[in-house]
Amino acid sequence: xxxxxxxxxxxxxxxxxxxxxxxxxxxxxxxxxxxxxxxxxxxxxxxxxxxxxxxxxxxxxxxxxxxxxxxxxxxxxxxxxxxxxxxxxxxxxxxxxxxxxxxxxxxxxxxxxxxxxxxxxxxxxxxxxxxxxxxxxxxxxxxxxxxxxxxxxxxxxxxxxxxxxxxxxxxxxxxxxxxxxxx
Amino acid sequence: xxxxxxxxxxxxxxxxxxxxxxxxxxxxxxxxxxxxxxxxxxxxxxxxxxxxxxxxxxxxxxxxxxxxxxxxxxxxxxxxxxxxxxxxxxxxxxxxxxxxxxxxxxxxxxxxxxxxxxxxxxxxxxxxxxxxxxxxxxxxxxxxxxxxxxxxxxxxxxxxxxxxxxxxxxxxxxxxxxxxxxxxxxxxxxxxxxxxxxxxxxxxxxxxxxxxxxxxxxxxxxxxxxxxxxxxxxxxxxxxxxxxxxxxxxxxxxxxxxxxxxxxxxxxxxxxxxxxxxxxxxxxxxxxxxxxxxxxxxxxxxxxxxxxxxxxxxxxxxxxxxxxxxxxxxxxxxxxxxxxxxxxxxxxxxxxxxxxxxxxxxxxxxxxxxxxxxxxxxxxxxxxxxxxxxxxxxxxxxxxxxxxxxxxxxxxxxxxxxxxxxxxxxxxxxxxxxxxxxxxxxxxxxxxxxxxxxxxxxxxxxxxxxxxxxxxxxxxxxxxxxxxxxxxxxxxxxxxxxxxxxxxxxxxxxxxxxxxxxxxxxxxxxxxxxxxxxxxxxxxxxxxxxxxxxxxxxxxxxxxxxxxxxxxxxxxxxxxxxxxxxxxxxxxxxxxxxxxxxxxxxxxxxxxxxxxxxxxxxxxxxxxxxxxxxxxxxxxxxxxxxxxxxxxxxxxxxxxxxxxxxxxxxxxxxxxxxxxxxxxxxxxxxxxxxxxxxxxxxxxxxxxxxxxxxxxxxxxxxxxxxxxxxxxxxxxxxxxxxxxxxxxxxxxxxxxxx
Lengths: 183, 754
Description:
The complex is a heterodimer. Chain A is α+β, with helices and mostly antiparallel strands. Chain A has one domain. Chain A is built from three helices and eight strands. In chain A, a hairpin with a 6-residue loop joins strand 4 and strand 5 (72-77). In chain A, helix 2 crosses helix 3. In chain B, the strands form six sheets. Chain B has a five-stranded antiparallel β-sheet. A five-stranded antiparallel β-sheet of chain B has the order 7-18-19-16-15. In chain B, strands 10-11-12-13-14 form a five-stranded mixed β-sheet. In chain B, a hairpin with a 2-residue loop joins strand 22 and strand 23. In chain B, 40% of the residues lie in helices and 16% in strands. Chain B is of the alpha+beta class. The radius of gyration of chain B is 26 Å and the shape is globular. Mean pLDDT of chain B is 91; it is low at 611-624. Chain B starts with 7 loop residues before the first helix and ends with a helix. At the A-B interface, helix 1 and strand 2 of A face helix 4, strand 17, helix 12 and helix 14 of B.
């Protein structure tokens, strides 16, 4: 399983203008803020429930994503990786979480933006390798349970397949303590 | 890049036509050969372009990050995918949509591809294509196979080929049409696709079809070949044909297409295309890309001679059985409704929002009880989720009659009027029901500096900013200006079609206070109607960050001073270009960097616009060099030429335009010679020596094109010109002066850097 995306949701209340992510992402490019090659910034704020502001990279894209009407930091892994599914889940989740923390610490967003590490979606961005059907979900579920169990504690979270068959396979993972808005 | 790339071929094998599948196999093979270094990079570049695989900004591996130019260190060393184009750098995939026609499954395929290979956004272009950005070249064969399985080819979407054949998106449902041109556009697109006679062009070739003469939907007069539906009575029988135009085009210097024939029987359409292709292949420029479009050939030969050569070729053509086959296939084209016609009574029960949407986004078809709905896409962008909503609505309420438009929107045709409330509701919940179609807020913009290698300023950034501000003020509802068209290009190449807008902008730069500052040239008075019937002329450059104020003043003045129902174009003509220029003159000032640094960045981009590091001490805000002064004087001169042309002084206008170029050359020579020569011959010779032969004046992409404008004008100076030639010389002078500004900026930056 490749091209794992992780979106970590922002907590309410959200008191930022996501346009401020533009200078932040440019600074990340200037400062080489990650180990990945960062290339450019794309502004899609004009698109309703779209990718918002996106940091384009070679290995992955990062975006202040507003899909589904919920703001979050989306890590979109583009390159294929070696290693087990657990390792790829770990890589994507850790990269997303690191970006969340970095954003929270940026001067423009400090005390105004908080992400919830226990409230996320995992998207498998390859319809051929991971078709959005029950069989694929059931195949991947034990891997997801294992991964989030090691992260948050077994039995402490809920998993749920989201979206309709035309969409990419998307799984919501959230700690039971998170009050879940309707998606 | 995608782990599944190799699997798609087997998965889709039985869904691809043999021809399409083989073409993609060949392309994949070429990729492999290029990776092994067995194909020359230039040959490979043209090969991929002909598959719609385009380069994108920074693909040379260099990017200025706002502090300094940085190398984008892609991890693996691989061959290039063209000159100065790194293999791993993301690129753009253009997807050709003939006449803009799509069904629901095709829309869903584009949605899937945008998510898996791009950034989740599909972009509708000003020529009815889709574009996906940030695509890795290794993904393109799989992407093409998935498109091919849905019946879409990317073949000849770019490169020196017949580009997407466009057509009025209302063709067939339009109340003003002579007849439905859809089937003819489709027939032409597929007949010419990959045709052997169309493989040896010096440049691209664009074709458009329109069902009528008066409406703008197909912009026939700005195309290499344009066809407008016409009928003629022959022996008591009404026969279909086309009014044919040739040699139009925007680009750096726009040309209006000329009338080739006022009636071409439909049976002659395909043979004529081949005859024109033969003449273009044989006589069109091949070495110098800058004069290779067919407009230059028509201009060089003269229309009469061009026509004679085409008819000579036509007479020599052997009958192609595919002509009759294609004409026979026309009857198969059948588009209609899936649901019974209905009527919708507007009443108080309907929301104000619905009524506004119906008033602006709904077009009552010539077929009673049916309507076409426009989905106004902001900047031509749509998400995958939204595409799926459009597909759903198309399936539920129509026979999947979807089209893209040259205004970067989508239309859905053949909706029963009774279904409009339900359709509105579905679109509204997906953010697709903004009541903005055809309004001043429905701004068209090319990709500009966002992704285009040629972009100078941020056309999309400006479009988004203007959109936000106009919406805040409710300008789409304004009776006087709500219907004006704004179009923006990131550079002089006109992909945003700024020439045919009421208010157009194209990106330029200026050297101000020791920094390079993003600007836009302002064009007023272009004509959208009558198939792009007239082009606007530039009235002056304004810093990017002051364009919103300039727009407010221009529109405010129109609102305050228009006489009765005077149209914007008439108003601009009445007050004259000199007054238009005066109106925006005071916006030209740029505050020093230490007072307001925002002027030195572009919209939606936090980076400093300058190239190279500039020390604060060198700002020297108030110091204006003699070169600055002289270039400003040249711009005034070029503008004076416009005024002369407006007053009917054609020869004088051409002469003044030439002089503005000569004076611009003198200004730059000051940098090399101290005191430049006065004699025109010597100016040209010295300029050639110091700026052309050294390539110092060369634009990175246009190369020496703008200097050639000057040399040509110098050679022809004094010869009689007609109005069109004078207008072109003025355009050329403007571009030469823009290039002079850029050249000056580069020299100054280099001096500071070293």
